[in-house]
Amino acid sequence: ARIIVLISGTGSTLAALIRAAQAPDSAFEIVGVLADGDAPGLAHARQAAIPTAVVPLRDHPTRADWDRALAAAIAELSGRALPDLVVLAGFMKLVGPAVLSAHPGRIINTHPALLPSFPGAHGVRDALAHGVKITGATVIEVDAGIDTGRILAQRAVEVHEGDTEETLHERIKVVEREMLVDVVSSLAAAPAPQPA
Ligand code: GRF
Predict the structure, then answer these.
(1) Which residue's alpha carbon is at the smallest distance from atom 7 of ligand 1?
(2) Are 92 and 121 in contact (CB under 8 A)?
(3) Could you say which EC number(s) this protein's record lists (predicted)?
(4) Residue 171, SS3?
């Protein structure tokens, strides 16, 4: 299966997907990595000789224009065939109708909390502030909402005494990247998920 990965940050999740894709028995290959800015994580793609593209929101007058540019960049990276899967791995923007309609039922996202609890850009901070003892990570199928799509997988992570947002997030990320690799590998091996 041919996948495109979208990132915004350090790309440790992407790095785990790249390592998994390079395994001899891997069921998927990463054909492109796309960022919404000069994300440090792009270095992982370049080191693995994976084509990259950057589509900054600020380069476009409206969000709809940016969304269309994003869809075009995904198509460009994927070449003549559509990707089998588009994976949002630490991508901090909402994809819009142009991207969603081009890849129905084939966009997944990873979130560092147990959805539907603590959706949005600060799931780790919100869980910690709420005082939960157990949080975790979720892989969902992306729809038009904010972290509202069908839940594909979840794993629990304990909150430790004295945890900060950073220490908790790092502990979650270890579990999160393993779960995402498992989900991508199983989707890649199975027939394409049916459009919703
Ligand atoms: C992940 O926990 C992701 O769910 C969240 O931010 C983190 C991305 O980390 N949105 P990285 O950029 O893959 O290191």
Answers:
(1) 90
(2) yes
(3) 2.1.2.2
(4) helix
Q: How far is the CA of 158 from the centre of ligand 1 (A)?
A: 18
Residues with catalytic function: 111
Q: How far apart are CA 91 and CA 86, in angstroms?
A: 11
> For residue 57, what are its two tokens?
């929101």
Pocket test for ligand 1, best of 10, 13, 91 (most atoms within 8 A of CB): 13
By CB atoms closer than 10 A (0-12, 13-18, 19+), residue 195 is: exposed
What are the pLDDT digits (tens) for 17-35?
A: 999 999 999 999 999 999 9
Q: How far is the CA of 172 from the centre of ligand 1 (A)?
A: 9
- End-to-end CA gap in the chain: 19
Condensed to tens digits (0 to 9), the pLDDT of residues 120-175 reads 999 999 999 999 999 999 999 999 999 999 999 999 999 999 999 999 999 999 99
Taking the model in full, what pTM does it have? 0.96
